[in-house]
């Protein structure tokens, strides 16, 4: 049996899907559940190749409904479990993930967004933002990390297990088909070697002793009889979530201090935004970039501070305003003029952003 | 050529452009450069035009994975020529295979430079059809200079070493294909 998937640190040149499979193993995941769908297939593919060396099992289920629920089951039994999916598979997983929200099951799901609606393309989009943040019947009691490169896919896959188990909130890593399929360099590491301690896992059911006699009952419920009872439960979920949100929220800003136009983007599109801002600055144009890393919880305070300073905002995304809705909600009452580049299912380059910013000046 | 080189390789499914791209960026990464490669992919399992988008930079992290215009665009079939017109502007060097019939009318008019190389013919008549893509790799390396020939050979060794072990003649064939590819571009840039 091999010792650890990554010893110390190692520069790698791989696809994003491989980076996720390695990260899960480096995070000492116990099991992966999954059902194949492009563009995340290779997460499963590499996991099933690598995992047996570390005595970690994989279960292929009959569909994504089952993959989601088996992940919930794995977590309930105390195992650090995850699954990965995309597009229509993400749709099918919403049912199990709303159960995870209700029962505070620390599941981890990696999403590689593809085009939508329906089967659409297997390639790329940012059209799973609303669904990943707020899918299913619930209040979006979730953590969603939107990554922009392979290093972050690796970092946040590891981190998502700790966020999920520390706060008992279902956690998502939101990538996309580009990140899944492209190859670029990153540094993989053994979390322990960097002083990252994996949060302990524990069973949520089948605990020793008699409930109500030797210990409190676990009370893992997703069904309630009265409106008032449900209201109390959901209110507490929301209250707990809001209490920990400031600890979880993450964002990044780039050249925003004196910026006339701040480009708002998330995920892989922020790479184009950074490049655009660099070029615009070279040309003497004061542009900046703000990027939420967590889409849930959303960095409201940080974005407001940026919006207060900026003359104009430009929201850029590979969807028809799903990210912009989060921005609008966050900036309600702010009067900074806002413009948009919406390209559902299509990649966005720095040139498009540069031209738009110039047109806004 | 600036710090960042953008390369689009396009051919018919099965011509091996994706493996060329993969070996090329591996080599660049081994040289300590930043490289990014993304295949275009659709629901079709085979056939159709296959495009590999590669970017290599000396040091800085690369921006968006796909780009609007390439520095070097290599098209290896008639459909690939037509499909790749969109990646060409006045800074693009456009390379195509001379054996593509009726290509002239479709070649881009706005490129910095357009020229043909007889890669398919060389593969068929001089070497072996199976090293066609390695000829293309040689041509790409010579045209872009994103990696040294030595590093390219090492990358081939890393990728195909196990096959070379079984049949050392394959190594020689691949190395010759790489060099022939470089020669085809020699003096044309």
Notes on the protein architecture:
Chain A: This is Ferredoxin oxidoreductase. Chain A: GO terms for molecular function: oxidoreductase activity. The complex is a heterodimer of chains A (361) and B (189). With 361 residues, chain A is α/β, with parallel strands linked by helices. Chain A folds into two domains: 9-194, 3-Layer(aba) Sandwich (Rossmann fold), CATH 3.40.50; 251-360, Rossmann fold (3-Layer(aba) Sandwich), CATH 3.40.50.920. Chain A is built from twelve helices and 14 strands. In chain A, the strands form three sheets. Chain A has a seven-stranded mixed sheet with strand order 3-2-4-5-7-6-12, sandwiched between helices. In chain A, strand 13, helix 11 and strand 14 form a beta-alpha-beta unit. The termini of chain A are far apart. The model of chain A has no long low-confidence stretch (mean pLDDT 97). With 189 residues, chain B is of the alpha/beta class. Chain B has a single domain (4-185), classed as Pyruvate-ferredoxin Oxidoreductase, domain 3. Chain B is built from six helices and six strands, in the order E-H-E-E-E-H-E-E-H-H-H-H. In chain B, strands 2-3-1-4-5-6 form a six-stranded mixed sheet, with helices on both faces. In chain B, helix 2 links the parallel strand 4 and strand 5 (93-97). In chain B, helix 1 packs across helix 4 and helix 5 (149-166) runs antiparallel to helix 6. The A-B interface holds A 13, 38-39, 121-123, 149, 178, 181-185, 268-269, 271-272, 274-275, 347-352 and B 22, 25-26, 29, 34-43, 61-68.
């Amino acid at each position: 049996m091999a010792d650890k998937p990554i010893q110390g640190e190692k520069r790698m040149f791989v696809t994003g899907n491989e980076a996720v499979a390695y990260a899960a193993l480096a995070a000492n995941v116990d099991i992966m559940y999954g059902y194949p769908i492009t563009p995340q297939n290779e997460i499963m593919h590499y996991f099933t190749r690598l995992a047996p060396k570390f005595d970690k099992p994989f279960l292929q289920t009959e569909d994504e409904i089952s993959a989601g629920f088996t992940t919930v089951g794995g977590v309930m039994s105390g195992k650090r479990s995850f699954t990965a999916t995309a597009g229509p598979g993400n749709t099918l997983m919403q049912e199990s993930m709303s159960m995870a929200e209700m029962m505070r099951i620390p599941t981890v799901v990696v999403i590689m967004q593809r085009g939508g609606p329906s089967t659409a393309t297997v390639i790329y989009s940012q059209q799973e933002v609303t669904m990943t943040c707020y899918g299913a019947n619930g209040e979006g009691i979730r953590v969603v990390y939107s990554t922009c490169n392979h290093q972050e896919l690796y970092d946040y896959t590891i981190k998502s297990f700790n966020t999920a188990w520390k706060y008992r909130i279902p956690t998502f890593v939101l990538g996309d088909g580009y990140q899944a399929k492209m190859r670029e360099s990153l540094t993989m590491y053994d979390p322990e070697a960097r002083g990252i301690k994996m949060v302990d896992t524990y069973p949520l059911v089948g605990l020793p002793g008699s409930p109500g006699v030797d210990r409190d009952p676990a009370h893992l419920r997703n069904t309630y009889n009265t409106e008032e009872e449900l209201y109390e439960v959901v209110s507490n979920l929301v209250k707990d979530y809001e209490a920990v949100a400031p600890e979880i929220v993450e964002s990044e800003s780039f050249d925003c201090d004196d910026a006339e136009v701040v480009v708002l983007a998330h995920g892989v599109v922020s790479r184009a935004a950074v490049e655009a801002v660099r070029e615009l600055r070279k040309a003497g144009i004061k542009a900046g970039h703000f990027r939420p890393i967590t889409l849930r919880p959303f960095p409201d305070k940080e974005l407001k501070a940026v919006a207060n300073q900026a003359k104009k905002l430009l929201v850029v995304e590979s969807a028809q305003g799903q990210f912009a809705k989060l921005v609008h909600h966050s900036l309600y009452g702010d009067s900074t003029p806002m413009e948009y580049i919406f390209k559902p299912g299509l990649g966005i380059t720095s040139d498009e952003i540069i031209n738009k910013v110039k047109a806004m000046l | 050529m600036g710090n960042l080189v953008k390369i689009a390789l396009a051919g018919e499914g099965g011509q091996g452009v994706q493996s060329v791209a993969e070996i090329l960026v591996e080599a660049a990464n081994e040289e300590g450069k930043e490289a990014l490669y993304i295949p275009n992919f659709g629901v079709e399992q085979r056939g159709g035009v296959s495009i590999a988008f590669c970017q290599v930079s000396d040091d800085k992290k690369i921006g968006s994975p796909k780009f609007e215009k390439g520095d070097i665009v290599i098209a290896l079939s008639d459909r690939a020529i037509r499909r790749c017109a969109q990646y060409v502007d006045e800074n693009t060097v456009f390379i195509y295979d001379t054996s593509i019939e009726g290509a002239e009318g479709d070649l881009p008019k706005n490129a910095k430079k357009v020229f043909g190389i007889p890669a398919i013919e060389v593969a068929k008549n001089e070497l072996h059809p199976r090293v066609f893509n390695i000829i293309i790799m040689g041509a790409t390396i010579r045209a872009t200079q994103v990696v040294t020939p030595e590093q390219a050979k090492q990358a081939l060794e890393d990728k195909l070493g196990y096959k070379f072990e079984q049949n050392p003649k394959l190594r020689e064939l691949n190395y010759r294909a790489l060099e022939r590819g470089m020669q085809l571009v020699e003096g044309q840039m």
